[in-house]
Amino acid sequence: MGNGATAFLVGPELLLANHHILQTKETAQRYQVDFEQSESPGVSRRATISFALEPERCFIADANLDYALVAVAPRSIEGADLLRQGWLWLRGGLTSHPGDAVSIIHHPLGASKRIALRENKVVSLSNPAASGVENIASRLWYICDVTRGSSGAPVLDDAWRVVALHSGDLLRDPDESHVELLLGDKDGELPLPEDPAVLANEGVVVGAILEDIGRQLERTPNALAAALLKDGPAHDESFGGHQAYSKLGSHSR
């Protein structure tokens, strides 16, 4: 399985991934999602459960916000029920601040599921005026142990709520003109990436994604995606979401 990345379920039969991975419906048709790819010391690796993507039922994406929302087949290639995987609710209005801890659950380099826990720190949030999304900052910047294959991972706060969709790295300008804009007077107080070419890791704020999905649904209604904008549970965010994370990869179809 090539072109591995991370993705996660955000509702019944709905998967959130990056646009730079799933750019079109035609691209999505060549991908499948693999669940249960995790390992624990002394425990046998679980068998992978694979589901086809069904972009003909739902495909909403935006290149600027680097997200793609796509439908997943309700039953796996092996016959398993997708609902048993659970999902992570997306909720608008969540805010993060410099110094806040975040965690990322991902498949780096296409490996089994890994968890980068809360020693990762937020360094900045983009200015809403420059985000292209009214009154909502669209980018969250943080320092985290991620690499290729981590794209599409959920960025979670200490309450395990999804605050952003991991997109990639923010690279330094040759003249470092945006270092002050990003870090301000906190430079030196917050962690820095190991790679000197990287200023910070970058995620797309959930509120900006939901706002864009709402606008697109006004133009092209889709009942499956519309359920995503309804209020989720007050406390149980995950609905079994510990199994909602998946590895996204291309396949012959």
Unreliable stretches (pLDDT < 50, length at least 5) are: 129-133, 174-191, 234-242
SSE sequence, one letter per element: EEHEEEEEEEEEHEHHE
Structural class: mainly beta
CATH topology of the largest domain: Thrombin, subunit H
Question: Main sheet?
Answer: 7 strands, antiparallel
Query: What count of helical segments does DSSP give?
Result: 4
Strand content: 25-35%
The whole-number mean of residue pLDDT values reads 75
According to DSSP, the number of beta strands is 13
CATH class of the largest domain: Mainly Beta
Helix content: 10-25%
- Rounded to an integer in angstroms, the radius of gyration calculated over CA atoms is 18 Å
Structurally, the number of domains stands at 2
What's the quaternary structure here? single chain
Q: What is the straight-line distance between the termini?
A: 12 Å
Shape: globular
Strand order of the largest sheet: 4-3-13-1-2-6-5
Label the CATH architecture of the largest domain.
Answer: Beta Barrel
